[in-house]
Design a protein that fits this description.
single chain, about 140 residues, alpha+beta, 2,3-Dihydroxybiphenyl 1,2-Dioxygenase, domain 1, 3 helices, Glyas_Fos-R_dOase_dom, Glyas_Bleomycin-R_OHBP_Dase
């Protein structure tokens, strides 16, 4: 895995409220998205901050979302350049002892992704997104 962090995704209770806070209060540069996209992106150099409804984020990672669950409410993401690299990176991580939470699969937004958990329970997504401008 290359030494790079692509996204920090925060699972939020109220997407509109959180988006307004990051855009208006913190004055972060928001990336335009189509109405109803259900996600907000803020470009912070080569790392992006994304806001996504907490329950939907837990569902995307195939983990439970409850106060007692092992889901911390956000994920970290590592984007790869080519689709096949999602499987390769996850396989390499598993071979070195990482716990795979969700194996690589084609996903609804047109890319491919899977998740692993670090030793403290934080979730990392390994993703290929054909619409993402940089990796």
């Amino acid at each position: 895995m290359e030494a790079r962090l692509s996204f920090v995704t925060l699972g939020v209770a109220d997407l509109a409220r959180a988006t307004a806070f990051y855009r208006d209060v913190l004055q972060l540069p928001q990336v335009p998205m189509p109405d109803g996209a259900g996600v907000a992106f803020f470009e912070l150099g080569k790392t992006w901050l994304s806001l996504y409804p907490r329950a939907a984020l837990a569902g995307d990672a195939s983990v439970a979302d409850s106060p007692t669950a092992a889901f911390p409410g956000f994920t970290l993401a590592h984007n790869v350049r080519e689709k096949h690299q999602v499987d390769e990176v996850l396989a390499g991580l598993a071979a070195r002892g990482a716990s795979i939470v969700k194996p690589a699969e084609d996903v609804f937004w047109g890319g491919r992704s899977g998740y692993f958990r670090d030793p403290d329970g934080f979730l990392w997504e390994v993703a290929w997104n054909p619409g993402f401008p940089h990796t």
